Automatic annotation (TrEMBL):
Gene3D superfamilies assigned to the protein according to its UniProt record, in alphabetical order: ApbE-like domains (3.10.520.10)
SUPFAM superfamilies for this protein: ApbE-like (SSF143631)
The protein's required cofactors: Mg(2+)
InterPro entries tied to this protein: ApbE, ApbE-like_sf
Name the UniProt record assigns to this protein: FAD:protein FMN transferase
Pfam families: ApbE
Reactions catalysed: L-threonyl-[protein] + FAD = FMN-L-threonyl-[protein] + AMP + H(+)
Example GO molecular function: transferase activity
Species this chain originates from: Hungatella hominis
EC number per UniProt: 2.7.1.180
UniProt keywords, alphabetically: FAD, Flavoprotein, Magnesium, Metal-binding, Transferase
Family note: Belongs to the ApbE family.
C-alpha cells in the first residue's frame, strides 16, 4: 500500500508535548487546528492546577449535599472516572487531588506529609462522596473540600474526542501522541514499550491499529527527595505513593480513555486484582484490554490479552 503523505500539528498541553498527525488533504490545516483546540478545551476545563478551570471552580463553589450543574465535558469526565473508581474499588480515584497536591506531585517538589496531616487529607477524598444526576447534568458532593484530579484520565479523554472528531470528517489515517498516550488510526504502527528497569531499553514492540496505548510507570514522572524516589501514583487508601508490584504498566485498548485510566489502575492494583477489573469491563461493557507490565524485583514481563483469545 502506498503510504499517504502526512501532516502534523505540535503543541504543549498537559505539561507534555502533544502531536496530532493526519493524512494530507485539502482542509488539513483546519482539521489539525480543530484537534489542537479540542485538546486545549479539555485541558482548560479539567486542569486542577488552574484556579479558573471549570473543575477548580466547581471544587471551590459547590455546597455539600446540593446539586451543582456542570458542562457536558465535565459531566463526561466525572461519569467515566467515577465508574472506573467504583469498578477498581477505589484504587483509581479521581478525588485524590488534595493528597496529590500535598505531596507536591505536579510541582516537582516533594513535601512529605506527616501522618496526622495525611489522615485529614484522606477525609477529603473518596469517590463515593460524589453522586451524579444525569437528568440535571449535575453532581452532588456530600463532604467539604474535595479536590478532583483529572491527571490519570484527561489525555485519554481528549484523544477519544479527537478521534471522534476526525472520524466525523472521514479522516482515515491518524496518529495522536500526548506525552506517550497514543492512538493510532487506519494504519499499523509498531509501538516500542519501554523496559521495566531501564526506560531506554524497549521491552517489547507491539503492532497497534485503531487502538490506544498508555503507560503508567514510576520513571515516567517521579519526585525525588533526600535520595529517595517517590512515584506519582498514590494509593488512595494510604494517601502515600504506591509501592507497586509493577515498575511500569502499558495498556492497549480501543478507547484511549480506558487505556489511560487502566494503566493507572493496574499500576495501583497489581496483576491479580487488575485482571479482575479488566474482566469485569469486558463482561459488562464489551471493552477489550491487553496489557504488558514489568514486574518489580525480577524485572519479568507480565502480559494479559483480551484480544488474542
Ligand atoms: P501520566 O501522568 O503519565 O498521565 P497517569 O495517567 O498514570 O500518568 O496519571 C498520573 C496522575 O494521576 C498523577 O500525576 C496524579 O495527578 C493522578 N493520580 C495519582 N494517583 C491516582 C489514583 N490512585 N487514581 C487516580 N488518579 C491518580
Ligand atoms: Mg492514566
Ligand atoms: Mg496517563
Amino acid at each position: 500500500m502506498k503510504k499517504a503523505k502526512m501532516r502534523e500539528v505540535n503543541f504543549y498541553a498537559y505539561e507534555t508535548y502533544c502531536m496530532v498527525r493526519i493524512e494530507e488533504r485539502p482542509e488539513v490545516s483546519t482539521l489539525l487546528a480543530g484537534c489542537r483546540d479540542l485538546a486545549l478545551q479539555v485541558e482548560q476545563t479539567l486542569n486542577m492546577y488552574d484556579e479558573e478551570s471549570e473543575l477548580s471552580v466547581m471544587c471551590r463553589d459547590y455546597r455539600p449535599g446540593q446539586p451543582y450543574e456542570v458542562s457536558a465535558l465535565l459531566y463526561d469526565f466525572l461519569d467515566t472516572s467515577l465508574s472506573m473508581a467504583k469498578r477498581s474499588n477505589g484504587a483509581f480515584d479521581p478525588t485524590v487531588g488534595a493528597v496529590v497536591k500535598r505531596w507536591g506531585i505536579g510541582s516537582g517538589e516533594v513535601r512529605i506529609p506527616a501522618e496526622k496531616e495525611l489522615a485529614i487529607l484522606i477525609n477529603r477524598t473518596g469517590y463515593h462522596h460524589i453522586r451524579l444526576l444525569p437528568d440535571k447534568r449535575a453532581a452532588i458532593i456530600d463532604i467539604e473540600g474535595i479536590t478532583i484530579d483529572p491527571g490519570a484520565i484527561g489525555k485519554g479523554l481528549a484523544i477519544d474526542y479527537i478521534i471522534h472528531y476526525l472520524k466525523d470528517y472521514h479522516v482515515g489515517q491518524a496518529c495522536v501522541d500526548f506525552g506517550g498516550n497514543l492512538y493510532v488510526m487506519g494504519d499499523t504502527y509498531r509501538i516500542g514499550v519501554r523496559g521495566p528497569e531501564d526506560p531506554e531499553k524497549m521491552m517489547a514492540i507491539v503492532p497497534v491499529k485503531d487502538q490506544a496505548v498508555s503507560t503508567s510507570s514510576w520513571y515516567e514522572h517521579y519526585i525525588e527527595r533526600d535520595g529517595r524516589v517517590y512515584g506519582h501514583l498514590i494509593d488512595p487508601a494510604s494517601g502515600k505513593p504506591v509501592e507497586s508490584e509493577f515498575t511500569s504498566v502499558t495498556v492497549i485498548c480501543d478507547r484511549a480513555i480506558y487505556a489511560d485510566m487502566l494503566s493507572t489502575a493496574l499500576y495501583v492494583l497489581g496483576a491479580e486484582k487488575g485482571e479482575a477489573v479488566i474482566r469485569s469491563l469486558r463482561e459488562e461493557s464489551g471493552i477489550c484490554v491487553d496489557y504488558l507490565a514489568g514486574r518489580a524485583g525480577d524485572g519479568k514481563i507480565v502480559s494479559y490479552s483480551d484480544t488474542l483469545k
